[in-house]
Amino acid sequence: MTAGTTLTKNGTTADHELAALQREHGRPLFALLLRLCDGDRQRAEDLVQETLVRAWQHPEALRADDFDSVRPWLLTVGRRLAIDARRARQARPPEVGDAILENARVCADHAERAAAVLDVRKAVKTLTPEHREVLVLVYFHGASVAEAAETLGIPPGTVKSRAYYALRALRRVLPGYAADLH
Predict the structure, then answer these.
(1) Which end of the chain is flanked by fewer CB atoms within 10 Å, N or C?
(2) What percent of the chain has pLDDT over 70?
C-alpha cells in the first residue's frame, strides 16, 4: 500500500488495505522495533500492532500523494511508540511475578510494631531492677557481656545469668512473643 489509500465511510482505512500494509511493511517495522525493544519479541509485536492501529486511526497520514511510501511514517510512529514505552517502564517500579511475592518476607505494619513496643516496655517494667539493667545494657544498647559487667561492676557470669533469667521472665509475661525472644 504505497499510493491512494481509500477510506471507508467513517474515515478509516479498509481492512484489506490494512492487511496489505502489514504484509508490505510489517517485517521492516518489526525488525526496527525488535532492536529498540532490546530483543523482546512480545513487546516488539505489541508495538507493531499499536503502530498499525495508529495507521488505521489516521488514514489521512497514509495518503501517499505527498510521498513515495508510507514506510517512513510507519517507522517514525513505531519508533516514537517504542521510546514512549521505554520511558513509561522507567517511570514506574518494575513489576514482580507471583513467585517472588510468595517468597517475600512479610513486614508487620507500623501499628503492630508500635503495639509490640508498648507490650515489651510494659513487660520490662515487671522485671527486678538488676535484671532490667542487664537486659537494657545487653539487648537494647548492644553492650557485650564484658562491657555490661564492667559498667555494672559485676562478674561476666552474673551478667549472663541475669540476662538468662530476665529473658525467661519476659517469655512468661509475653507468651505471644516467645518465638521472638529465642
Answers:
(1) C
(2) 77
